[in-house]
Structures are given as structure tokens and as C-alpha cells.
Amino acid sequence: MSHEGTDFRDDRVGSALAGTNPTVLRRLRAGFAVIGDVQHLPGYCVLISDTPGVDQLIDLPPEQQLLFLEDMAVLGRAVAAVCARRDPQFRRINLEIQGNTDAFLHAHVTPRYEWEPSELVGWPAALHHWTKLMTDPGSVPLGPEHDDLRRELGDEIDRQLAATGGSSTPRRGPRPAARR
Known about the structure:
This protein is of the alpha+beta class. It has 5 helices and 5 strands; from the N terminus they run αβββαββααα. The chain has a single domain (8-163), classed as HIT-like (HIT family, subunit A, 2-Layer Sandwich). The chain has helices spanning 12-18, 62-86, 118-121, 127-131, 147-163, and strands spanning 24-27, 31-35, 45-49, 90-96, 106-113. Strands 1-2-3-5-4 form a 5-stranded antiparallel β-sheet. A hairpin with a 3-residue loop joins β1 and β2 (31-35). α2 (62-86) packs across α5.
């Protein structure tokens, strides 16, 4: 499928692989770190699989499952570090793999803040998506006003990878075969 002239949201994995997904921050070992197209909470990111047709974590071979989860942790640490520097009200990171709506493997990496309304604090971060609630007055679709945040997130992903001996370059060699 050609991705020229199509909306990246129609095929997030394919557009990331083709280099046409504008939300990609970095290529990781088992996926792509992307900034959320709507920043309902500042710093919200998603890790998307780099394997087309994979719907859930258990569809990957065990070795790839571990790489995806490690990438999720790298992205979580990066988002936490950036959000803690940017907002003293940063509280924690929520990591969620749900897959109830979008049929491709992805993990939500959502910063949580002390300033969130009390009726939302105890609920999964996905409630922000479900209700279309934007708790931050600056919460808007991704745009030029998020350029500094994007840069900081990308730089921090690089730092996190360097600290753990990882790399944000694409994997080399063939994918492991699926086990039966």
C-alpha cells in the first residue's frame, strides 16, 4: 500500500514503516515511539508495533514480546523524565496495552498529573480517550506548539537507550520465526 497522500491514521504501522507517519519520535527495537496526535495529557505517547498485522502482544514470538515490553519501558522512562522536568505536578506514568479499538499492537504511555480532576485520577488513562475529555486547557491536536516537547521526548529516548546500551536504529537481520 502506498502511503503518499493518505492519512497516516489509516495505517499507523505501515505509515511509520514508510517514513510518512509524522508522529514518529524514534524507531526502537520492536516498534516506533510516537507522540499522541492529541495531547489530552501533556507528554502522552504511544508505542506502536513495527510488525504489520500483529493485533496483540501474544501474536508476536516470545523474543519479540520481550523486546516490545522493553521498548515500552524505555518510552515510559523517557516520558516520565521529560514530564517531571516540564511540570512539577507530574505524578506517575500509566502503561496500558488494551487493543479494544485499534487492531494493531500498541501501548499507551500516559503521564498523570496532580492537577487532573479527582473524578478521573482513579480511572485508567484511557478514560480521557473514551470521554474525549481534555483535562489540560492546552490540550489540542498535535501541532507546531508541541515541537519543543517532541524534541525533548526524542532526546530523552536517546538518553534512555544510551544508558541501557540500546539503540534507536532498526533491527538488523531477519525476524525470529513464530513458534507453534
